[in-house]
């Protein structure tokens, strides 16, 4: 699985968009980009994932660069409840793998009033 | 509501006293796994199960046992807990080949 690099921390004003970057320069063609978050000691929560096209759901948008070496998670209108650690994970989908998610250090997003 | 539940949520025990942390999911997922989370070490996989009666070791299986007798349940067993198993434990489940996993709320364990 490709390694990911994220900034350790970011701040965002409440109501503004939060843009969280992730570098995955060694990603291979069949690896997906997944984003999870963990709100203080709660169970990690799935946010969104994508392969090469941009994706949007009710929680966030995922922008993947054309060369797939980096991506950005966008929370369009951040609220105080979005304060959490955000993890970018690169994984191959497949029923034969261990299903292990490798959570790096992630980005601690602090949403401020 | 689709969910993964864990019990107990908090547990204080003493060294050597066997304990079981239960995990249950109501989404008919084949895959379930256990992680532990420790400061500075992140989440590490303990055991996982691809389906009923199929289990395998993760990265840190020592001191733990699991069983998968039915699809919805995946208990984590500590036969003889030690202080280095003090941690925050999470159960997770998923369907098929996706990596969209659902995590339980966590069990905070303190072994004295």
Structure in a nutshell:
The complex is a heterodimer of chains A (113) and B (112). With 113 residues, chain A is mainly beta.
The number of distinct helices of chain A, counting runs of at least 4 residues, comes to 0
Low-confidence stretches of chain B: none
Strand arrangement across the biggest beta sheet of chain A: 1-9-8-3-4
Unreliable spans of chain A are none
Order of helices and strands of chain B: EEEEEEEEEEE
How would you characterize the largest beta sheet of chain B? 7 strands, mixed
Average per-residue pLDDT of chain B, rounded, comes to 95
- Overall pLDDT of chain A, averaged? 92
What structural keywords apply?
heterodimer, A: about 110 residues, mainly beta, about 0% helix, B: mainly beta, seven-stranded mixed beta sheet, about 50% strand
Structural summary, described in words:
The complex is a heterodimer of chains A (113) and B (112). With 113 residues, chain A is mainly beta. Chain A is built from no helices and 9 strands. Chain A has strands at residues 9-13, 18-23, 31-38, 45-50, 55-56, 61-64, 70-75, 84-92, 107-112. A 5-stranded mixed sheet of chain A has the order 1-9-8-3-4, with no helix packed on it. A 4-stranded antiparallel sheet of chain A has the order 2-7-6-5, with no helix packed on it. In chain A, strand 5 and strand 6 (61-64) form a beta hairpin. Chain A is globular, with a radius of gyration of 13 Å. Chain B has 112 residues and is mostly beta strands. Helix content of chain B is 0%, strand content 51%. Chain B has strands at 4-7, 10-13, 19-25, 31-38, 42-51, 54-57, 65-66, 76-78, 87-94, 102-103, 107-111. In chain B, strands 2, 4, 5, 6, 9, 10 and 11 form a 7-stranded mixed sheet that branches. Chain B has a 4-stranded antiparallel sheet with strand order 1-3-8-7, with no helix packed on it. In chain B, strand 4 (31-38) and strand 5 (42-51) form a beta hairpin. Chain B is globular and about 40 Å long. The termini of chain B are far apart. The mean pLDDT of chain B is 95. The interface between A and B is medium-sized, with 21 and 27 residues.
């Amino acid at each position: 699985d490709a390694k990911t690099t994220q900034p350790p921390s970011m701040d965002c004003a409440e109501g503004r968009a939060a843009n969280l970057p992730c570098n995955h320069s060694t990603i291979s063609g069949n690896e997906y980009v997944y984003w999870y978050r963990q709100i203080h000691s709660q169970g990690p929560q799935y946010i969104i994932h994508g392969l090469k096209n941009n994706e949007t759901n009710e929680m966030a948008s995922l922008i993947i660069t054309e060369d797939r070496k980096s991506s950005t998670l966008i929370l369009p209108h951040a609220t105080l409840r979005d304060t959490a650690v955000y993890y970018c994970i690169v994984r191959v989908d497949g029923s034969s793998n261990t299903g292990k998610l490798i959570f790096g250090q992630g980005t601690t997003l602090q949403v401020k009033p | 509501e689709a969910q993964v539940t864990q019990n107990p949520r908090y547990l204080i025990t003493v060294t050597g006293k066997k304990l079981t942390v239960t995990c249950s999911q109501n989404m008919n997922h084949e895959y379930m796994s256990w992680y532990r989370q420790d400061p500075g070490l992140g989440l590490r996989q303990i055991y996982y199960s691809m389906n009923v009666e199929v289990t395998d070791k993760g990265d840190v299986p020592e001191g733990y046992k699991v069983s998968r007798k039915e699809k919805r349940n995946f208990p984590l067993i500590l036969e003889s807990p030690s202080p280095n198993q003090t941690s925050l434990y999470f159960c997770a489940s998923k369907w098929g080949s996706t990596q969209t996993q659902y995590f339980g709320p966590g069990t905070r364990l303190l072994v004295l």
